[in-house]
Amino acid sequence: MALAAAGNPQWTSRFAFLMAAIGSAVGLGNLWGFPFRTGQNGGSAFVLVYLLCVLLVAYPILMSELMVGRHKGLSAIESTAQLAKDSGKSANWGIVGVVGVFGAFLLLTTYSVIAGQVMAFGVMSTTGGFSGGPGAGLYDGTLMPLLWHTIFMAMTIFVVAQGLHNGIERFVTILMPAFFVMLAGLCIYSLVNGASGQALSYLFEPRFDEVTPSVVLAAMGQAFFSLSLGCATMITYGTFLSQDENIASSGGLIAGSDTLVAVISGLMIFPIVFAFDLDPAQGFGLMFSAMPAVFTEMPGGAFIGATFFVLALVAALTSAISLLIVAAIAGQNYTGLGKAGSAIVFGGAVWLVGAATIFISGLGANIDFFANSIALPVGGLLVAVLVGWVAPSAAMRGELPHASDRLFSAWRFLVRYVAPVAITITLILGLDQRFGFGLNRALASLTG
Ligand code: TRP
Fold first, then answer.
1. DSSP designation for 129
2. Does the CB atom of residue 266 touch ligand 1 within 6 A?
C-alpha cells in the first residue's frame, strides 16, 4: 500500500494525470528528435527498431518508475531509498533518485535554450523576419538567445510555482487536448498538400538491411528521452497517483500516445520535406527554419506556420514543467522551502546554467552528452535493477493488482533481464561513439 506522505498532493483525476504524463513525454523529442533521427538513420529501419525499444524496454521502465513513485509517495530520492530499505537493502539506493534529479536538472538547462530558439523562430517566421522583415535578427548574437531562454524559463517556473493543482493540472488539461487538435490538423494538411506517398514509404517500407548498431543506439536513446525516463520524472508523477490507478494500462496509454505523436510528427514533416526537396537529415534547421519557409509558399501558410510554432511551444512547456517539478519537489524536501520558493530557486539555478551554455561554447554539448548518454541510461538501468532485483517482489506485485500473473511475469522478465542488458549495451555504445574505443566501427564491419 502507498504510504502517501502527509500533505502530498494527488492528481484530481485520471485525465489530469494522463495529460500531465503525456505532456511530459510529448515534447521537442517527438517533433524534432524523432523525425530527425529517422532521417539520419535510414527511415523505416529506425522506426521499426524504435517501436521494439519502446515495447520491450521503455514501456516496462515507464511502468516501473510510476510504481516506485506511487509505492512510497515520497520524493524521488526518498521513495527509491525507502523501497530498498523495505527488503533490508541499503538506503544508498536513493542514488536512483539522485541520478534522476540531477539528470532532470541538467536536461532542462539546454532544453530551455532550445525551446527559446523555437519561440524566436516562431515569431520570426510569422513576421517574415527570416527574409529581412520585422523581427529580423531576433535570434542574433548571445543576448537574444539569453532573452528567449529567460522568457521560457520564466513561463516554466510560473506554472510549477503554482503547484500541482493550480499550476500543472490546470495548464495541461487545457493545452494538451488543444495540442492534439493542432497536430491532427497539421498532419492532414501536410498529407494533402505534400508528397505523402514518398513520406509513407520512407517511414514504413521495411528496410531491415539498414539496421546497424548505431541505428539501435539512436533508437534506444530516443525512446528513453521521448518517454521522459531515467530522470525521476515519472517517479515523481507516480507519487501523486492514487492506489486504484491501473499502471499497466495508463503506462500503455502514455507510451502509445507518445509513439503515435512521434509517428504523426513524421507524417506532418516528411510530406513537406519531399515535396520541397529538403534534406531529411538536416536536424534543427529542417524543423524550425526550412519547414516554416516552405509553409509561406503554401495555401494558408501564415496561419499554418503560426499553428506549428504554437504546437511546438506547448509541447516544450509541458515537458519542461515536468523536468522542473522533479528538482522542485526534491528541493522542497531537503531545503524546507515552500513549493513556490523551491520552483523559483531551482528554476533560477537551471536558468543560470542554461545561460552559461549560451556564453561558453561547447558547454551545452557536454551537458547534453552527459545528460542524454550517461544520466538517462544510468538512471533507467538503476530503476530496472531496483524494481527487478532489489525491491521486494510482493511490493511490486501489489503495485500491479490488476495485472494477470502472465502479464506480471512478462513485466518482471523485461525489467530483470532485457532492460538491463539492452541499456548497458546502449551505454557502452554511446560512450564509444563519443570517445572512440572502436567498438561501433568493429560492429559495423561485422554487419557489413
Ligand atoms: N520527453 C520530452 C521530449 O520528448 C523531454 C523530457 C521531459 C524528458 N521530461 C523528461 C526527457 C525527463 C528525459 C527525462 O521532449
1. G
2. no
SS3 label, residue 242: coil
Question: What is the model's pLDDT at position 5?
Answer: 46
Residue 127 C-beta-side C-alpha neighbours within 13 Å: 14
DSSP state string for 373-406: IIIHHHHHHHHHHIIIIIS-HHHHHHT-TTS-HH
CA distance 87 to 210: 45
Give the integer Cα–Cα distance in Å for 104 and 126: 32
List the grid coordinates of 143: 543576448
Ligand 1 atom having least distance to the Cα of 258: 4
Residue 350 and residue 383: Cα distance in Å, rounded? 24
| Nearest-CA residue for atom 8 of ligand 1 | 228
The SS3 of residue 194 is coil
pLDDT in tens, 265-302: 999 999 999 998 988 877 777 777 777 777 778 788 88
Decide: residue 133, CB within 10 A, 0-12 exposed, 13-18 middle, 19+ buried: exposed
Query: How far apart are the CA of 89 and the centre of ligand 1, in A?
Result: 30
pTM of the model: 0.94
The domains found in the chain, sorted by start residue, are: 5-447 (1.10.4160.10)
Q: DSSP letter for 4, please.
A: P
Q: Is the Cβ–Cβ distance between 198 and 280 less than 8 Å?
A: no
Query: Which residue minimizes the CA distance to atom 10 of ligand 1?
Result: 228
